[in-house]
Design goal:
The chain is mainly α and 107 residues long. 86% of the residues lie in helices and 0% in strands. It contains four helices and no strands.
Length: 107
């Protein structure tokens, strides 16, 4: 978390200095993606700590954001698309792990 926060601060400073929104958006998605990896691991190791409603709601919010984009431009769709993928990946990991646990309990 601290590394991602530090990278976000550096990214903000970069954006203030350069004003390159496209590159900054891409870097932000990459930083957030790196930060999502521990969440994926936790969702697998401790699925009971994650909530379907929260992750599904956030994924749907990303989907609705995608639907609201009026111009097909990668800089406009990359972050909401990332949110859809990331949030529904957590939902999928939680679901798969719960199914594995259920099968192991019945075996």
């Amino acid at each position: 978390d601290r590394v991602c926060l530090a990278l976000a601060i550096v990214l903000l400073a970069y954006w203030v200095a350069v004003h390159n929104t496209r590159l900054t958006t891409l870097i932000a998605v990459l930083i957030d993606g790196v930060g999502a990896v521990p969440t994926f691991i936790k969702a697998y190791r401790q699925p009971e700590t994650e909530n379907y409603i929260t992750w599904t709601g956030d994924g749907l919010a990303g989907l609705f954001s995608l639907l609201a984009v009026t111009k097909l431009d990668w800089a406009l769709v990359i972050y909401p698309a990332y949110l859809v993928v990331m949030n529904f990946t957590v939902v999928g990991i939680k679901y798969v792990r719960e199914q594995i646990d259920r099968v192991e309990k019945t075996a």
